Here is the input.
Amino acid sequence: MSGKKSDFVKFEQVDKSYDGKELVVKGLDLDIAEGEFLTLLGPSGSGKTTTLMMLAGFETPTNGEIYFDGNPINNIPPHKRGIGMVFQNYALFPHLSVFENLAFPLKVRKIDKAEIEERINKTLKMVSLTGFENRMPAQLSGGQQQRVAVARALVFDPKLVLMDEPLGALDKNLRESMQYELKHIHETLGVTVVYVTHDQGEALTMSNRIAVFNDGKVQQLSGPNELYETPVNSFVASFIGENNTFTGTVKELASGTAKVETNTGEIIIANPIAVSSAGEKSRISLRPERVNINPTEQIENRFEAEIKEIIYHGDHTRVRVNLLGNDDFILKVPNASSNSKLNLGDKVNLGWSSQDCRALDY
Amino acid sequence: MSAEIRTSDGELLSVKLRKVERRRRTTAFLLAAPLLFFIVFAYVIPIFQMLGRSIDNVQMNEFLSETHVIMQTWDGTEMPGEDVTSTFFYELKGLVEEKNHGKIATRLNYEKGGFTSLIKKTARKLKDFDENENFLDQFIDVHKKWGDVEYWLALKRGTDAYHFRKYLTTFDYEQKFDGSIERIPEKKRINVTLWLRTIFVAAGVTFCCFLLAYPISHLLSVLPTRYSNLLMICVLLPFWTSLLVRTSSWMVLLQKQGVLNDTLVSLGIVADEGRLELMYNMTGTFIAMTQILLPFMVLPLYSVMKTIPPSLMRAATSMGATPFLAFRKIYFPLTYAGISAGSILVFVLSIGYYITPALVGGAKGTLISNRIAYHMQQSLDWSLATAMAAVLLIAVLIVYWLYNKIVGIDNMRLG
Here is the structure.
């Protein structure tokens, strides 16, 4: 990515409050690189949509400054920002045909007729909607409306495209295929995309980087795999993917390992991520697929558990066990023939490495 | 061909379905029946009866039936013969005995002025007639108007059972006795002026309502519910007070010594002797009608605007349109259905508006409905009143028909 700016969009200490009492976005610092697909992920009310709306210009920051391509844009109205946007419910103009919808941003820019037609044809081809020019939005399926909305946000060649939960209204299968399609469009055009969603699967599939929002702050900003494998705090660990937790107190903190005593008195050897001293309370996070059943090799943590529930899930089986007083400890067991011997009430040995179990904030 | 499907009790499924369907239709009809009968007997039938009066002259035809028959043989170029005059004499005599001659006098007076006194005078002198003498000469002796052939022509066409001359009068035309149709003398023309004024006021009130209602409807549609409910109550407040009360309050506000003028004078904007004429003219009619009809514009506009998602305007601006352009190209076109529904409601209501122009309109602000009322109550020319009402009704139906053609009546929603 030579010659591309790493701070194409820059949020600098941005605060936003609607009522003057509560900050919806708190001291946000965020750099978005040119050409990247960045997802703002978080539960509702976490400030991610507000952040997007401030970037689009529909909300003004209470404090701080937003830069777009090096220029402060706080005082630039939305129609002068030249940022494309895809809305949650598509926001297609119901009284205009697909062609007229796409022509709208071009006509506003006073582009001549022949070029408008050429650009629309090119864009419709990209979203595989050639031949739908004269349809009205109401005559299109949800997926097709979605594509028109994407096409309309791209047709005027904006350098930045914002997407506000654009796939939220689609059914599951369509949503998944649209995710790949959006990803491919992004790769082909190299346009910078800022995408808002509360669906982590969507975020993990499409993004170069993900900013996890909670409580008006970015909790973690990193690529999809780091986010899943190495969450920096309990919120991210529990929000992204499935997660088993133990709470306990740090007994000993040595280089690279922490001994944590659980509430039931056992000692778990963990990877200290967000603990700094002995005596601190900590929440230990462990991914279900990182747990070995009846491990044969030497492993740091090894405990006995009782199988409480077995749920068949097709490609894998979820096994709920009681482990160290935690009745909701989940295991994901691939459905290979060697694993079919599990029975309700059985006692099994579970083991995991200290690297995979992360001692996070309480 | 599919095999016949039977229900468990052996009946044909199609027959059974039809039975159920029929029962359901009967129930539905019975539920609607009270309203249907009410509308037919209290609304449709009276309307058509009234409308019939605009062409109905059957009573006259019956009072003077023999005269009418015999007059058909008279060509009307010169004075009628004895057959006509004698028949008329005997029938008139009968009417006088039954004291019905007043009715024909009024009716005949519509055909030709002066008939009232003519018939009354003749009726008094009828007993002095010598049945063996020439009747025409004796009629002329009673009153010289009988020597004018036009009175006899008026008598001839005044006894037709049906005629459409009231519709000509509605538009300030008249039919001469030779059958030609001409405009009435300029000094007597009033109806066309009133029609034009009615249309002008209706269109103007519609436009004013549109101008005032558009922003408030938009506000209603974007405000959070608890504020918009309060605002909606304010908009609907006029519905809760009697029309008469509202109009009277406008009189209090608008008259020369009224609240508005007093305020303007005390603020020094208007001199005491230069108080504004806000009432008993078109201004008064305009102001009061606009206020009273405003909800009929707000409701359909609001119901349409509520369905326009705010993201559309945002989408338009994100694509580079200025807020004004986004409004003109996106928001405004989407409100056409509301504008047209509101406009037709206000227009149709104001075209037949009566109380407000009657009270605040004065002579310069009266509308066609006031003229209809005048003919119903004062001049008692019900035929003319109903002819005008029929024209008004047809005008309204045409407006509805056009609306349905262009916009579709289904688009009219009130909430």
User: Anything to note?
Assistant: Residues 56 and 336 of chain B are 43 Å apart (CA to CA). Strands of chain B lie at 173-175, 181-183. Chain B has a mean pLDDT of 87. The first strand of chain B starts at residue 173 and ends at 175.
